[in-house]
Amino acid sequence: MFANKKQPPIKSLIAEGCQIEGHLSFSEGLRVDGQVTGNLLALGTAPSLLVISESAVVVGEVRADHVIISGKVVGPIHSAELLELQPKARIQGDVHYKALEMHQGATIAGHLRPGALTEDKPALKLAANNL
After folding, report:
1. Which of 4, 111, 118 lies closest to 66, judged by CA?
2. What is the pLDDT of residues 2-50, one digit of tens each?
3. What is the distance, to the nearest Å, from the Cα of residue 98 to the centroid of all Cα atoms in its chain?
4. Is residue 73 in a domain?
5. Is residue 83 part of a domain?
6. Is residue 3 one of the residues assigned to a domain?
């Protein structure tokens, strides 16, 4: 997982105040601070990182290897490796993940759908109270 690998660089930014309508494909890393109405999909075989900040709103499908969410997502989320839900994350949609780290305060209105699990790593880590 990403704990042993270098994070992909964030090469693209959707700044706060920007509004995008339409699907967006990206490679390596993308940070969203603005609003997107459309799908955010990682391309290629290189590891991908998607950061959705506290000020961001995404209405559409989200798909990347490592997804970090602090803002609002309305739509399904697919994380091939690690999904991190920060305390102010608000999710409305099904969440597909291999490993999940969910901080106290984050909310999900949808189904949790774990993917392929490995025996040596936990699929779910409780971030509250450092447990």
Report:
1. 4
2. 555 678 889 899 999 999 999 999 999 999 999 999 999 999 888 999 9
3. 12
4. yes
5. yes
6. no
The residue-averaged pLDDT of 76-104 equals 97
| Count of domains observed in the chain | 1
Q: Where in the sequence is the domain holding 20, given as residue range(s)? A: 10-123
Say which residue the tokens 């042993």 belong to.
Answer: 4
Residue 1 has pLDDT above 50, yes or no: no
Task: Compute the distance between CA of residue 19 and CA of residue 6 in angstroms, rounded to an integer.
Answer: 30
Residue 80 lies in a domain: yes
Calpha distance 32→57 (Å, rounded) = 8
Full-model pTM: 0.85
